[in-house]
Amino acid sequence: MDIADQPVLDKGAVLSEAQLVAQWLTRFDAALQSGSQANVMPLFAAESHWRDLLAFTWSITPSESASTISRLLAEKQHTVGAKGFVLAAGRTPPRRVQRAGYDVIEAIFQFETKVGRGFGVLRLLASEPSKAFQLMTSLHELKGFEETIGDRCPTGEAFSRNFGGTNWKEQREAIQAYRDREPTVLIVGGGQGGLSLAATLVRIGVDALVVDKFPRVGDCWRQRYHSLALHNDTKLNHLPYMPFPSAWPTYLPKDMVADWFEAYAWAMEINFCTSAEFVRGAYDDAAGRWNAVLRRTDGEERTLHPRHLVFANGLVGAAHIPDLPGLKDFKGDAMHTTTFTNGANWRGRKALVIGTGTSGHDVAQDLHANGCDTTIVQRGPTMVLSIDPSAKLTYGIYNGVPIDDGDLLSITNTKPMVKKNLQTITKRMLEYDKKTIEGLIARGFKFTDGEDGAGHQWMVRTRYGGYYLDGGCSQLIIDGAIGLLHYDQIERFVEGGALLKDGSLKAADLIVLATGFLPQEVVVGQLLGEAVAKKVGPVWGFGADGEMSNMWKRTAQRGLWFAGGGFNNCRTYSRYLAMQIKAIEEGLLSP
Known about the structure:
It is a single chain. The protein has 591 residues and is α/β, with parallel strands linked by helices. Helix content is 30%, strand content 25%. The protein has 17 helices and 27 strands. Strands 1, 2, 3, 4, 5, 6 and 7 form a 7-stranded mixed beta sheet that branches. A 5-stranded parallel beta sheet has the order 10-9-8-14-27, sandwiched between helices. It starts with 16 loop residues before the first helix and ends in a 6-residue tail after the last helix.
């Protein structure tokens, strides 16, 4: 059937949101089957956006404008064979909402391709519902390789009532030892990124091993500073398959997170090797595998040969220790926030905290609470926002919908729409936090609302720092309970603290460096060699295509992947990384 033969909107009829969406999907399906760009293009507004996650492009691919979107869809359809575009059963029904200042009709749909099944998000212009303003298509599962959950879960026959044989625990111990095989995937780092990916790989039949240098699962959180807690709502931070208990607090303390990670790894049957640090690796092109060297705490080394190596050790590398003038002359204690635990030992003494990001503020507040005379040193403009209500605005898209639906809605925006949305949200944040911001500025604090007013979430995407989610330290600075000093007032550090340019001494017994971390590409160079680091390029931050550079997708180095971000990022994107690896292993996708 030609696209012209498809039903058109009856100008005199009042159609429901569901009918409008169903009508568009029907026309879109027919246009794709025709294979003609000319048939696809009229379905999109002149200013329109499409983000594809694997379904058509086997990557995370943004496109803009009706002409570009329709051309790419028509080109890919010949091999993809997408069809069956209908409203998704059991999902949030179509509704009228405003996104980034645009009035749209928003809906979740489902479809299938030759190799899999997918979900997507459609946003029609409310003023012209025959035109799509935004489209997102995502591959949800591969046909024949669906997740072993629900009705597809294992029977347990391999160990249940296995009289005379090994039981489940013995089998798990043997599996995790890797004495008779190599892992298909080696995941470096056992935080939320590594665990989310490993759990997903296990469910689709990919042998994965997580290695972590710490002695216990969860130590990546357990060993951080004493007062640390998550700054966003627990209900948004679930890991795949296994949500947090509904009775847990809104903001989880680090030790609850750590212990949950340990329970999660056990319950999800994740192969996890603790006290094992990845120290170097090299890719064997002829064999199509890595030579990955692990070192145990006793110095013993073992080389594994996975086909895929995933860095899930965070979005940043080792602690950044800047060469501050005179710091080596300081006779007190100096440490980075990564080694700071709590301020209990500093009661009655003086401390300087260098840096005004979230960690710097938290450390300064902890020291102050323990009776330490604390001054925070600001190096550059910082955005400060309240945890509630301002930070919650960022996750407003989850309000009133199940978390799985919220995850789909949250990954729909391309870079231009992300920025517009964040600019709108940031304006509201500034209104909510006006009193605090004015109080800080009056004290001399250098405040910023980010690039083009896009706020702290844009900073997360571009530099992963430069902001503070206010846990109470701002009022202490406003009240003068915690001192404020600008770094450009310091001439150099000396034995007793910081020598200021006016000749006075800012005495200190302790200097804490809240100076951030080295970029991930530095770690890649150290562990895999500078040639690989140069080949891959930056990790995180916006790439030329407007997506996060080298994250959750194939890189220029065969078999090398990166996973990271907040809990919701890891939960959402681990599926797409896992499916790419599975598709490569099954011959559906080129390495």
